[in-house]
Structure formats: structure tokens, C-alpha cells
Design a protein that fits this description.
- The complex is a heterodimer of chains A (788) and B (342).
- Chain A is an alpha+beta fold.
- Chain A is built from 20 helices and 40 strands.
- Chain A is elongated and about 130 Å long.
- With 342 residues, chain B is α+β, with helices and mostly antiparallel strands.
- Chain B folds into 2 domains: 93 residues, no CATH class; 227 residues, Bira Bifunctional Protein, Domain 2 (BirA Bifunctional Protein, domain 2, 2-Layer Sandwich), CATH 3.30.930.
- Chain B is 42% helix and 18% strand.
- Chain B contains 12 helices and 9 strands.
- Chain B has a 7-stranded mixed sheet with strand order 1-4-5-9-8-7-6, with helices on both faces.
- Chain B is rod-shaped and about 125 Å long.
- Classes of the chains: A alpha+beta (788), B alpha+beta (342).
- The structure holds zinc ion.
- Zinc ion (ZN) binds next to loops of chain B.
């Protein structure tokens, strides 16, 4: 809610400086969204009056304005606009003024003529968007005074009563410990009664518990006076004509929307509040045509709809320049009904916004009196006697009891009944009963948000000031923290990956169904969004791969070709009626191993990602894994992908991304990835460490360089070596793989380092030689191995 | 005879001293050692002449020879150390390298900045005795809204533009539903935080359709707004700066009352006003409040017995303030030039 400080000041019953007012709003819970200074704070933008306009001697399109800005002598200001005339009040930016567009004003010479300031357009001040000419101020504005300030308050959804200037003044007064009352309205009516001219029938009483109408005849439609237009614009509303402007003005003043009908355009002068018929059409004031449903509440005459209740008037009954007799509507509409209609039709208006947040049902007659007198004041005409007031609700006082003990218990304060009463009474809460333990309050009708005790406790805290409540620390019994296995494993994984130089990425939980499909991932179980933000984020990810690949591609496309990246995150799958959320890991590596000036990094390959799988599996507690090729691993390279299994369970899978996919995505490097379903395997991880005593006897190390057929796998060789070596083989490490001259074609050389040790004695060379011979014999027999 | 031996011995050490003067290498030293102490060395020769001594003169001569031998050895050892030291010093001189060439350790990877800041937040609360809880990202309307005192068509729902999934469920717009799930399962006393991803239909430099929140909840018999202030202040001081001023101002959330927003004195301008804090001198850090009795009623807690507080904060926002990041979308692009900075 934006408004002019001048306007607010008119209602505020206490004298406060601008900083005090802005702080008061903030500290009492009315967040100041922005405050645009139009001189009220700086004093550098003031109200001036143009005394004389003379042509600029050097420039045809400039004028010299002699402006009375309240100083000892008038100022000479050079101006390029044409819309002002002598006698006009205008905003004058003096030397040192900072305009909201960033310009700082200085005395200067413009084509030889002295210019002691600047006359401002609306947009230069930040008042509105108008740049057509100098902003002509209302003639009532006093010369020499600082112009104004625009204050924008963000009002929380529970405080519909503050969606008006008097509402805000009322709440702020309470904070300054002063009770506010709405100004009284004196009304002059004709002898003739409204019942002779207008009839109101409310058909849906739940949706419209109160409908009030007034009747003014003989108005003259024209532009609004300057002061009223200025205030409307300060709130961001565009002036239209004096009757419509008056309804908007009173809405901004009291917070209650009002609608004006041209009564001569309403058939039979009969207003009916009813639900729409299915498919009924209504052309709105803004020209759009709405098709309605039975849920929408209408204002209609016996023939047709004339307004969408609480949202906007219809074109067929609006106030045009020819209107003479006006019916004014001020009603209470059920917030939920308005909200449903507004949401379905997507039509938020100043009116619907306020009705949705509750208006003061008791204020209706006063609001009607106020708007009627204002219209009479600015448009003429006479107010016909009486209000048609259709009431389908019981006026009841709302009593709320407040326990002193509960208040202090909740806030951690030590306030007495007297202090609490002093905090709440300025909010127009009436004490109707009190003792040492409880206060019984009657809440004002405009505070729909005050319902139960806690609401009053909050008001007391708000008025007391949160800042005054002493911070304390609660007692927490110490206990071991509970951490699930998944969380623990997740943390281990991050630690390991970090130590292995992998950077962490995080991508959105939603992804593209097209990309998912292109990667060969199934879509049947995917969770679809009904309102995605874009078509490439239309499903919840069932795999981390699509988002991950996009991150990889992002970096590859920007020249970062050597990367190690991972993500741990949730994936989502539909399982019958349920949705399964699982934590998964994906890691990827591409480009070269870390290289330096000492050592050129080699390209990464399958064994780097396999090594990652091994390291991770081992560290989180899986030993004795079996490797098996991935058959049909869709997006994996069919010859370069595998998985580790423990019994039936897959611990992780890894390999090169399928070259066709890499090609299709135009990845600039071969990408090797590893995936793990953390949720599934974490509960199975068993990390047991059993200390083995440090060996007492020396070991013997022997190398074994073999030449074998290419088709023999390293695993087979290793298994056979272990089998034939027996228990004294302490370790077996492959230290070289060689192909090429002098090793014959289709053969390879594998070189192992074997360490033998006995736990109870020193092994002899002869024993080692014997074992080595045995191993080689076996290899020769089984694989036709030769020594190199 | 003894006289000759005595004379020879007296001449021995000065001769050794003189010989050692010109020795500069280990090899030369060894030659000298052999010349004096070797099998055919000068001292051995002297000892061989003992045969001609009277038996009563022998002990005296023996002692003299041993003394001379000890001294000679000492001189040789000292010389050896000397030579050694010189040789090492010479070697050092030849071992100059370019100290400015880059070091070659493989740097560790980086955790995502969000993970890092989330980790810091968790650590602070865990050290205060809070447990970490989790809940599903795909929620039902009841837990995300209704149980949190936000019935259908409540105006507060306007602030949460919600993603829906087929079948009527939604992506949680806040981590607050975890409060409800925990309270449905456990009885007070409770002190939990619930980190997680949340989703809102919104996208610009300061809004991401997915972001990270941390929810906190504490319920017991005597929890007050003062306790809320205390816990939040300790947290913010730990996370940012022990000296930073903090401000609580009234706000509205459907599921807490009284509710507050917590402002931290702007870390960029120290409160004097700048672009980041929109000239206010304050930065909004989190929302919080006392748990609304309606929420306790929804989970079957006795509102006469228990009070509690809840708070929630956006991790991206805090990370942006901590590091001066100006575009929230950077967090989800995963550009290495961004990730490597943290
Ligand atoms: Zn700042």
C-alpha cells in the first residue's frame, strides 16, 4: 500500500518526525517496502509557484521561469517543458536535491542563462510515470514547503484493516500510545427517501451478509480537484472522473471498496445480488468479457448482470460523462467467494484484494456517508435521504479473554495487568472486565484477525516492542544426536569425493522429459508436474543423469574440459499410489588427470571411474565385491561399463557414457560416470575394522611378467595366482600392462609384484621359488602363459 | 728407551695436526688415519717398540700411548665432521631451484556453497542440542498448508505459488511440513531442524523455482519468545559475526503467533545504507515465531501445557549475503568457475 506522507500526516494525531514514523511502522510490523523522498526528508524539493515565464533569449525551445520557492527572492529556472503557466504550483528541486532517477541538482547556466534548480516532471520525482511535462501540483499546496514523501508499506495478509491511510494511521497511533478515532462525517440529505428510488434484493445471503446503498442525484461529471487527483496518484491510481475518483479515494481512505452505478442505466432501479448462471457473460469496465459460473456472485438488475461482486463493475452500468444520478454500493462480500472468482478469472483489483482480506462490516454506513458527502462536495448534486441497508448478519460484540500468566509465559516477560491494558487499549480494544489474572477485551469490528487469546498476546508483544523482550536460552537436555545411516553414508561419500578432487554440483529436482527419453531412461514411473515453469522442467527427475549431463555440457562448452563432478540428491518415482523418494549419487570424470609442469596429465579412462567405484564402495563398508559387465545398461558404453555387486545387490555401476549419446549431446570429451543408489545400499553398509598385528617376520618380493592371450582377463589371472599361491601370498599387485613389440600380436604382457610372508617364521628363497614355479605352471597350463 | 717413546709420542700429535691441515676430502682423511692409526701406522709402530721396555715402564708407556690414541682419534673425528659439513654446504650451494615454480599437490574438490553453508548451519544447531530431521519433497496439501493453519483459499497461499504433480500432490513450498510430520510422530520435548529443498513457481535473479530452506522447531513446557530470541541470536552471531546487531520485527505467518522477521545489520555497509540493503541498513535473514496453538491442536499437543517456537530461513539468501553473490541462478548452473571459489 503506497500513499503520500502529507495525506497520512493529516490523520496522525501525534507529531512525529519522518524517521520516527518510518521506524514506527517497521517496528510495529508494518514493513516499509520503500520510501521515496520528494523533499519531505531532505528539504531539497519544495513547492514553488511560477511567477513569470519569459522566452529564453538563446533557445527557442527553452523558457526562463521566475519561481517563488519560499525564499527571499524568486529563483530563475530554465525549463524545456511547455505545459505550465504563470501561477501554477510546481515541484522545485533545489541545489543538492537528489532525484529518484539518480540525478543531483546543481546551479548551472543553460545556454547562457542562470538556472537555480529544476522544475520536475512526475517521473523525475518518482511520483508517477508521467514525462509529458512539469508536474502541476494542487493549487492548495503551500509555497516553500517541502513537497512530500511516498511511503510504500507491505501489509501482511492478516491485516486487511491496514489497507487504507486511516487504517495505517490508526495502527501507528496505537504504537505511539495514542488512540485514534475515525473523523466524524456530517451529511446533508434531502427530505425525499432513497426507498422511493432504489430497490435492493439480496438472494445469496451467505455470500453477501450486508449490502448498503446510497443515492445521489444531479451530479455533474468532470475532472477531480487537484488535491484529490494528487492523492489518488500517490497511491498509484489513475484519476478518471470525479465520481469514480471519489469512490476510489474513500476506498484508500477507509479501506472499504465502493462502487458507483449510473442508476439510469439500471433497469427498474432494482439491484439484485445473486449467483451467476452457468455461461452467463459480462462485459467489464476494462472491456474484457467474462464467462461466469454458478460460483460467481453478481450484482444484476432484473434484466442482466451489471457488476462482478467485489471485483469490478460492468460496462453497461458504469459512470460515463453523461451520468446524472448515481447509486453508491458499499457491501460486505464473503472473502472466500470473492477469492475463488478472482483466482479463477485471474482478475485482481484493488476491490477484490480488500474484500479477500476482510473489510469492516460495521463501517458500511459511515463509509457511504463519507463518499456521498465527498461526491456532493466535488460533483455537486443532492444526497437522497437514507441508506438501503440489507443486513443478513447479527451484530455481536467479540469478547476475548486474556490471561496475564499465559501472556508472560508465551513472551518470557513479566508484565502486569495494568501494563498489558495500557498496551492494548490504544488499539481500540475495550476492557469490559478485569481482575488480577485475566483481562476481558472487546475487539473492534475492523480487527477480523483478533479471534483468540494468542492474537491479543501478539498485539501486546507488538505494542511492547519485540526489541524489549530479553533473549534467554532454553534448557536442552543433552543426548546423543540421532543420525540415520543414509545421512552418515552421504557424508562419508562427500568426504571421499572431496578428497579425490571431485567438485559438488546441485541441479534442479525437475528435469526435461524429452532429455530423459533421449537418454534412454524410462518415463512410465516418472512424476509429472501439472504446472511446470517450462517444458524442459516438466517432470521430477527419476535419475540424476539428465541434470548432471547438462552441468557437464555447460562446463565443456565453456572450455572447462577437465572435470570431476558429482551430485548427491533426491530422485522421484511413482510406485502404484505412492511416490518413492530416494537419495542417489552420480559422479563423472572427463578430460585429463590433473597435470602439472612436472607431469603431463593423461586422458582419463574407464579405470579412473572404476577406481572411484572401488574406493567409495570400500570406504563406506562393502568388501568382497564382484564385478560384472552391465548388460543393456542403456546409456552406458556396452563394452566399457560394469557394476559391483554384493550378493544380489548392486552397489554401484560405472562406465563410459554411450558414444551415441555423447555424440547426440555434442559432448566435447568422453565422459565416464558412476551411479549409486545411496538410499538402497546405505542400510547394508558394514564397516568393520579388525586389527591385524604387524608382521614379525620379513617378507619376500618376487615379480612375475607374463605373456598371455589378449582374451584372458586380468581377473582370471589374478584368481588363479591367488589359488595356486596359497596363504603365504600376502599381496598381489599388477604393476604393468604392455602390448606391442616384442610381445606378439593379440597377446599382452601382465607384470605382477607378489609379496610372500609367513606369520610364524622367515620364508626361505627356496620356498618362494617353489611357489613361484607352482604359480607359473598353473598359468601355463590354464592360459598357455609364457614368461617375458 | 722410554725417553724415545715419550719423544715420539710428543711429536706424534703436532705432526698429525699439521698433516690434517691440508686434508679436505674424506679420502685424504682416510689416508691420514691409516698413516697414523693403521696396522703399519705411526702409533702402531710406537706400540711395537714396547717390547724393548722394562716391564715396570710398560704401564706408564701404555697409558701414554692410549692417551695419544684417544686424542688422535678425537682430532680425526672432528676433522671428519668438519669435512662432512663442508661437503654438505658445498652440495647445498649447488642445489638452488626456482622457488617460484607452482606447487604440485592435487587440490581437494569443493563442496557446493549451499552444502557448505547448510553444513555450518546444521553444526551450530546440533551443537545447541537440535536433531536433524527430514521429510518428503513431494507433499500433500494437508501437511504443507492445512495443518500449518493455512486452509484452502487463505490469502497467505498467494505468497506460495505452488507446483502440483499429477495425482493432486504438490512440491512443498516450505520445509515447515516437516514440523507437522515430526510432531505427529513424537511427543515433546522436541528440538529439531529440518533442512531441505523447497519449490515455488518463480524465477528471476533473486528467485529460483527450487531453493533450500532450514526449518527449526522447539517445543517444551516453558518455551517463550525470549527463548526464541536467544536461540536465533546465538545462531546468527555464530554464522555471521559476533558483533552484528540483530533486530526482531513483527510479521505474519499463519502457523506462528507472535511472528517475527529477523534482520541482521547490513554486512556490506555496517548499517549506513547501501544498494544490497536497499538503503535500510538491515538485511532480512529469517522468519520465526511462537508455534500457533491451532498447529498444536492439529497434531494433538496440549496447548495449555506446551509452547514452542519455529523458525525458517533460505540457505541461498544467507549464502548470497555471506559471499556477496548477486544472482541466485548461479547456484544451479554448476559452472566450475563459480564452484571452485568456495
Ligand atoms: Zn547495506
Amino acid at each position: 500500500m503506497r500513499f503520500s506522507y502529507r495525506w497520512l500526516k493529516e490523520y496522525l494525531p501525534v507529531k512525529k518526525t519522518i524517521p520516527e514514523i518510518l521506524d514506527g511502522f517497521t517496528i510495529s510490523g508494518m514493513e516499509v517496502e520503500s520510501a521515496v523522498d520528494l523533499g519531505a526528508l531532505s528539504g531539497r524539493i519544495v513547492i514553488g509557484q511560477i511567477e513569470k515565464i519569459t522566452p529564453h533569449p538563446q533557445a527557442e525551445n527553452l523558457a526562463n521561469c521566475l519561481v517563488n520557492a519560499g525564499g527571499e527572492r524568486p529563483l530563475n529556472i530554465v525549463c524545456g517543458a511547455r505545459n505550465m503557466k504563470e501561477g501554477d504550483k510546481v515541484p522545485v528541486a533545489l541545489e543538492g536535491a537528489q532525484l529518484s532517477n539518480g540525478i543531483t541538482i546543481k546551479h548551472t547556466r543553460i545556454r547562457g542563462e542562470v538556472s537555480e534548480g529544476m522544475l520536475c516532471a512526475g517521473d523525475e520525482l518518482g511520483f508517477n510515470n508521467d514525462h509529458s511535462g512539469i508536474f502541476i501540483l494542487p493549487e492548495e499546496f503551500p509555497i516553500g514547503e517541502p513537497l512530500d514523501m511516498l511511503i510504500d508499506i507491505s501489509i501482511t495478509p492478516n491485516r486487511g484493516d491496514c489497507l487504507s491511510v486511516t487504517g495505517l494511521a490508526r495502527d501507528l497511533s496505537a504504537y505511539f500510545n495514542k488512540r485514534f478515532s475515525q473523523p466524524a462525517v456530517r451529511i446533508l440529505e434531502t427530505m425525499d427517501h432513497i426507498e422511493n428510488h432504489l430497490k435492493v434484493t439480496v438472494q445469496n445471503r451467505e455470500a453477501c451478509p450486508r449490502y448498503g446503498a446510497r443515492y445521489i442525484r444531479g451530479v455533474r461529471i468532470g475532472p477531480s480537484p487537484g488535491w484529490l487527483a494528487y492523492r489518488l496518484e500517490s497511491a498509484g491510481l489513475r484519476p478518471l472522473n470525479n465520481v469514480i475518483d471519489a469512490t476510489n479515494y474513500v476506498m484508500l481512505e477507509y479501506g472499504h471498496p465502493i462502487h458507483a452505478f449510473d442508476i439510469d442505466r439500471i433497469s427498474n432501479h432494482h439491484i439484485i445480488i445473486r449467483n451467476a448462471r452457468k455461461g452467463e457473460n459480462l462485459e467489464m469496465l476494462d472491456g474484457t468479457v467474462l464467462t461466469l459460473t454458478e460460483e460467481d456472485l453478481l450484482i444484476a438488475d432484473p434484466r442482466e448482470p451489471i457488476a462482478l461482486a467485489g471485483v469490478m463493475g460492468g460496462k453497461n452500468s458504469g459512470i460515463t460523462p453523461s451520468a446524472i444520478n448515481v447509486a453508491l454500493e458499499c457491501a460486505y462480500f464473503d472473502p472466500l467467494t470473492i477469492r475463488k472468482t478472482r483466482r479463477r478469472l485471474g482478475k485482481q483489483t484493488e476491490a477484490s484484494y480488500r474484500f479477500e482480506r476482510n473489510v469492516d462490516i460495521e463501517a458500511i454506513p459511515r463509509v457511504l456517508d463519507r463518499v456521498a458527502t465527498l461526491i456532493q462536495q466535488i460533483s455537486g448534486g443532492e444526497i437522497v435521504q437514507g441508506i438501503l441497508d440489507v443486513k443478513n448478519f447479527k451484530s455481536a460484540k467479540k469478547f476475548i479473554s486474556l490471561s496475564i500468566k499465559n501472556t508472560n509465559k508465551c513472551l518470557g516477560t513479566n508484565l502486569g495487568p495494568r501494563e498489558i491494558a495500557d498496551l492494548l487499549v490504544p488499539l481500540n480494544l475495550e476492557i469490559s472486565n478485569s481482575d488480577t489474572e485475566n483481562l476481558l477485551f472487546c475487539a473492534p469490528s475492523f480487527r477480523n484477525d483478533l479471534v483468540r487469546e494468542i492474537d491479543l498476546i501478539e498485539e501486546a508483544a507488538r505494542m511492547y516492542g519485540y526489541g524489549k523482550i530479553k533473549p534467554t536460552l532454553p534448557y536442552l537436555p543433552s543426548k546423543p544426536t540421532t543420525q540415520t545411516k543414509i545421512v552418515m553414508v552421504e557424508k562419508q561419500i562427500r568426504d571421499i569425493l572431496q578428497s579425490l578432487s571431485y567438485d559438488e554440483s546441485i541441479t534442479y529436482s525437475f528435469t526435461s522429459s524429452d532429455l530423459t527419453q533421449a537418454l534412454g531412461l524410462p518415463l512410465e514411473e516418472s512424476v509429472k508436474l501439472t504446472n511446470p515453469i517450462s517444458s524442459d522442467q516438466d517432470i521430477m527427475r527419476a535419475s540424476l543423469l539428465p541434470g548432471f549431463i547438462q552441468s557437464v555440457a555447460h562446463n565443456l562448452n565453456r572450455g572447462m574440459l577437465n572435470l570431476r563432478l558429482y551430485e548427491i540428491g533426491k530422485t522421484f518415482k511413482r510406485k502404484k499410489d505412492d511416490i518413492q523418494e530416494e537419495i542417489r549419487l552420480i559422479a563423472g570424470i572427463c578430460g585429463e588427470k590433473s597435470s602439472s609442469w612436472k607431469q603431463k596429465g593423461e586422458p582419463v579412462d574407464f579405470y579412473d571411474i572404476k577406481g572411484l567405484g572401488e574406493a567409495l564402495s570400500e570406504k563406506i563398508g562393502f568388501a568382497g565385491l564382484l564385478i560384472e559387465p552391465l548388460s543393456g545398461g542403456n546409456y552406458y558404453h556396452p563394452r566399457r561399463s560394469a557394476r559391483f555387486i554384493k550378493g544380489e545387490v548392486e552397489i554401484c555401476r560405472f562406465g563410459e557414457l554411450h558414444p551415441l549419446i555423447a555424440d547426440c549431446l555434442e559432448l566435447k570429451r568422453r565422459l565416464y560416470i558412476m551411479e549409486m543408489n545411496v538410499s538402497q545400499i546405505a542400510p547394508l553398509a558394514r564397516k568393520t575394522i579388525a586389527y591385524q598385528s604387524i608382521p614379525k617376520y620379513p617378507s619376500i618380493t618376487r615379480d612375475l611378467a607374463l605373456v598371455l592371450d589378449d582374451s584372458v582377463s586380468a581377473l582370471e589371472v589374478e584368481e588363479l595366482i591367488r589359488e595356486s599361491a596359497g596363504a603365504e601370498l600376502e599381496s598381489l599387485v599388477l604393476f604393468d600392462l604392455y602390448k606391442g613389440d616384442p610381445v606378439p600380436r593379440r597377446k599382452k604382457s601382465l607384470a605382477y609384484s607378489l609379496v610372500f610372508r609367513a606369520p610364524d617364521r622367515t620364508l626361505t628363497d627356496e620356498e618362494a621359488n617353489e611357489t613361484m614355479q607352482k604359480i607359473f605352471d598353473q598359468l601355463k597350463e590354464r592360459f598357455n602363459a609364457t614368461l617375458r | 728407551m722410554l725417553d724415545i717413546i715419550v719423544k715420539n709420542l710428543e711429536e706424534l700429535l703436532p705432526a698429525l695436526k699439521a698433516d690434517l691441515k691440508d686434508v679436505h676430502t674424506t679420502r685424504d682423511l682416510e689416508e691420514i688415519r691409516v698413516a697414523y692409526l693403521g696396522k703399519k701406522g705411526k702409533l702402531t709402530t710406537i706400540m711395537k717398540s714396547f717390547g724393548s721396555l722394562d716391564p715396570e715402564e710398560r704401564p706408564k708407556a701404555g697409558k701414554m700411548v692410549n692417551d695419544a690414541k684417544d686424542k688422535a682419534l678425537e682430532m680425526l673425528i672432528r676433522k671428519e665432521q668438519d669435512i662432512n659439513e663442508k661437503e654438505i654446504l658445498l652440495q647445498i650451494d649447488n642445489e638452488a631451484i626456482d622457488l617460484t615454480l607452482p606447487g604440485t599437490a592435487t587440490p581437494p574438490g569443493r563442496r557446493h556453497p549451499i552444502t557448505q553453508v547448510l553444513g555450518e548451519i546444521e553444526e551450530i544447531f546440533v551443537s545447541m542440542g537440535f536433531d536433524v530431521e527430514e521429510g518428503p519433497d513431494i507433499e500433500d496439501d494437508y501437511h504443507n498448508f492445512e495443518a500449518l493453519n493455512t486452509p484452502p483459499f487463505h490469502p497467505a497461499r498467494d505468497l506460495h505459488d505452488t507446483f502440483y504433480v499429477e495425482g493432486g500432490l504438490l512440491l512443498r513450498t516450505q520445509t515447515s511440513p516437516v514440523q507437522i510430520r515430526v510432531m505427529e510422530r513424537k511427543k515433546p520435548p522436541l528440538a529439531i531442524i529440518a533442512p531441505g529443498k523447497v519449490y515455488r513457481v518463480d524465477m528471476d535473479v533473486s528467485h529460483s523455482p527450487m531453493f533450500t530452506q532450514v526449518e527449526g522447531l522447539m517445543v517444551d513446557e516453558k518455551i517463550s519468545f525470549g527463548d526464541l530470541k536467544g536461540v536465533v541470536e546465538v545462531f546468527i552471531h555464530q554464522l555471521f559475526d559476533k558483533e552484528a546487531a540483530i533486530r526482531f520485527r513483527p510479521h505474519y505467518f499463519p502457523f506462528t503467533e507472535p511472528s517475527a522477521e529477523v534482520d541482521l545489520q547490513c554486512v556490506f555497509c555496517r548499517g549506513s545504507g547501501c544498494r544490497v540493503c536497499k538503503q535500510t541498513g538491515w538485511l532480512e535473514i529469517m522468519g520465526c515465531g511462537m508455534v500457533h496453538p491451532a498447529v498444536f491442536e492439529n497434531v494433538g499437543y496440549d496447548t495449555n501445557k506446551y509452547t514452542g517456537f519455529a523458525f525458517g530461513m533460505g540457505v541461498e539468501r544467507i549464502t548470497m549475503l555471506k559471499y556477496g553473490i548477486n544472482d541466485i541462478r548461479l547456484f544451479y548452473e554448476n559452472d566450475l568457475r563459480f564452484l571452485k571459489q568456495f
